[in-house]
Amino acid sequence: MKVYLAIVALTALISFALTPMARMLGVRGRVYTPSRKRDMHREPIPKLGGAAMAIAVIIVMGAASIVPFLSGIYQAPILGILLAILVVLIMGVADDLWDLHWIVKFAGQIVAAGIVAAAGIRVEAMPVGWIHVDNELAQIVITIFVIVLTINAFNFIDGLDGLAAGVAVIGGSAFFIYSYILTRTINAYDYSNLATLLTALLIGACIGFLPFNFHPARIFMGEVGAQLIGLLMATAAVAVTADLGALEGFRFRNVPAYMPILLPLAVMLLPLLDLFMAVLRRTARRSSPFTADRGHIHHKLVDGGYTHRQAVLLLYLWTFVVGYGAVSLTYFPAEIVITVTLVAMALLVLLTLRPWIMRRTYYRKLNRLREAKAAERAAQRSSETGDPLGG
Q1: Rounded distance between C-alpha atoms, residue 3 and residue 7, angstroms
Q2: Separation of alpha carbons 374 and 247, rounded Å
Q3: Nearest CA to 238 among 110, 85, 81, 83?
Q4: How confident is the model at residue 283 (pLDDT cuts 50, 70, 90)?
Q5: CA Rg, the chain, in Å?
Q6: If residue 46 lies in a helix (H) or strand (E), which one and from where to where?
Q7: For the whole model, what pTM was predicted?
Q8: Which range scores top for mean pLDDT: 58-62, 96-100, 171-175?
Q9: DSSP SS3 for 33
Q10: What is the maximal distance between C-alpha atoms in the chain?
Q11: Residues with Cβ < 8 Å from 148, sequence gap 6 or more?
């Protein structure tokens, strides 16, 4: 655990140190996010923060290769992940500079995901009844689909200051705990694990960047940051799901067989839900799924009455409850975890709908007051017209 925590701390420090430099370059190069109707900000803000995050991850990845504890996982897959991060970095910076067409960005995402799959990190079994995927081409296609889906899910929720980075820290920490304890269960002598390393790097990069990105943001992560988060999160999920040695560990500990797929879905519930709703909404309008609009969950919360920070903190709470609720199923009685999680989610539903409930209550009271005043005036007119003596 000490090695992983050191990786988190080192990545956070480097990300924290590089982010102001990225901001300075963004300001000097005028690499700004333009102010649009759907945006929350009203002034130009540089958007190269993701480059600082990616460089921090690459530096610490390289430094960690000399740590004897991690020597077992520094093989071909690591080189593939590094190359995929470089693709995300180059394509993301190019998009921040020149606003690439969505087809070009999509192709870059497929290339990055394909590199990860070609390096050997693939979905080898579907954790629903443990359906094995024996065909190599099918493994690659499914892996690319999962990674590209996750990249775009995080890209879609990157609409409020600190939202994507904070969700990644909370969800990534739940995944980190799960992966680390799982590794210790499977092998009592070697705790090194690729998924745990990737989530440690992800958490550190986001923690270092978040102080500059939380509302009011001084810099945005841009395309690089959102795609980096999606790439690392999805690759970690695939690495855990495809760990056939882990399956025996699950059976041995009587852990639910669906946990390898449940936890990634729970951690990424908010981004995936927002992505799904956006695709449906835009398809219904007969526009491209990649066409930007102001219909995302975070936009609805702000439009509904929450402040910028309140909306972000509320979505943090949702991520925490769902993510840690899922990981708790592995270590605590299911009845207790499900009960507590459902109660917490019910309270979150009420909290989420609070502005609309308050507004509806206000208008109901206003309408009743208007009706009472109208009835009072009608009664007054009736009494005046029905009394010829005026008394």
Answers
A1: 6
A2: 71
A3: 81
A4: confident
A5: 25
A6: strand 45-46
A7: 0.81
A8: 58-62
A9: strand
A10: 106
A11: 106, 109, 110, 113
The dihedrals phi and psi of 333, each to the nearest 5 degrees, come to -55, 135
The pLDDT tens digits of the residues spanning 182-222 come to 777 766 666 778 889 999 999 999 999 999 999 888 899 98
Cα separations in angstroms, 312 against 166, 213, 302, 351 = 9, 12, 9, 13
Cα–Cα dist 267/197, whole Å: 17
Domain spans in the chain, listed from the N-terminal domain onward: 2-293
Chain CA centroid to CA 264, Å: 11
- What's the token pair of residue 302? 């702000």
Q: Are strands 45-46 and 32-33 parallel, antiparallel or unpaired?
A: antiparallel
Token code pair at residue 385 = 């017209």
- Asked if residue 48 lies in contact with residue 71, where contact means CB atoms within 8 angstroms, the answer is no
Q: Supply the pLDDT for residue 159.
A: 72
- Tell me the torsion sign for CA atoms 245, 251, 255, 259: positive
- Quickly list H helices, the chain: 2-28, 49-64, 76-98, 102-118, 136-157, 163-186, 194-213, 222-241, 244-253, 259-267, 269-284, 297-304, 308-328, 334-385
pLDDT higher than 90, residue 9: yes
Distances (CA, A) of 335 to 259, 320, 328, 330, 331: 16, 19, 11, 12, 12
List residues bridging with 45 in a β-sheet.
Answer: 33
For the record, the structure tokens of 94 come out as 């190019």
Pairing of strands 131-132, 125-126: antiparallel
How wide is the angle at C-alpha 52 spanned by C-alphas 104 and 16, nearest 5°?
155
φ, ψ of residue 45 in degrees (nearest 5): -130, 130
Tokens 């690459």, located at residue = 58
d(CA 263, CA 171): 9
* 174-186 average pLDDT score: 81
First to last CA, the chain: 90
